[in-house]
Design brief:
mainly alpha; elongated
Length: 116
């Protein structure tokens, strides 16, 4: 008679373990879908940048991204927004990229040291 309660506990533990495994599998599947969406959005952004930037401008943007990643991402987002709104005529060359970087550059704090 003592075997029946142990079997019930064992079955209950098995059921809980199966539920946990199913929840993990669902969470991983959702995470995979989000990752695929991120990759697709990144690919679309890169395609827009290739379409609207000359090689020199892309090189300059990549250099900026390597030295200042957050600022580089901000510039990319700005170029993509301009492209999607249709405000870019032709391609952005190196001179236009310099101007855009200058406009978007955060104000640098300068210190004047005066010696007496």
């Amino acid at each position: 008679m003592s075997g029946a309660p142990d079997d019930e506990k064992l079955e209950e533990l098995r059921q809980q373990k199966m539920e946990q495994l199913q929840e993990r599998a669902e969470a991983q599947q959702e995470g995979g879908e989000q990752e695929a969406a991120k990759q697709q959005a990144e690919a679309q952004k890169q395609a827009l940048l290739r379409q609207h930037l000359t090689d020199e401008a892309r090189k300059r943007l990549n250099t900026v991204k390597m030295s200042k990643p957050q600022f580089g991402e901000q510039v990319e987002r700005q170029v993509v927004a301009l492209a999607r709104s249709g405000r870019i005529q032709g391609k952005i060359d190196d001179d236009k990229m310099k101007q855009l970087l200058k406009e978007l550059k955060p104000d640098s704090k300068s210190f004047d040291i005066k010696r007496r």
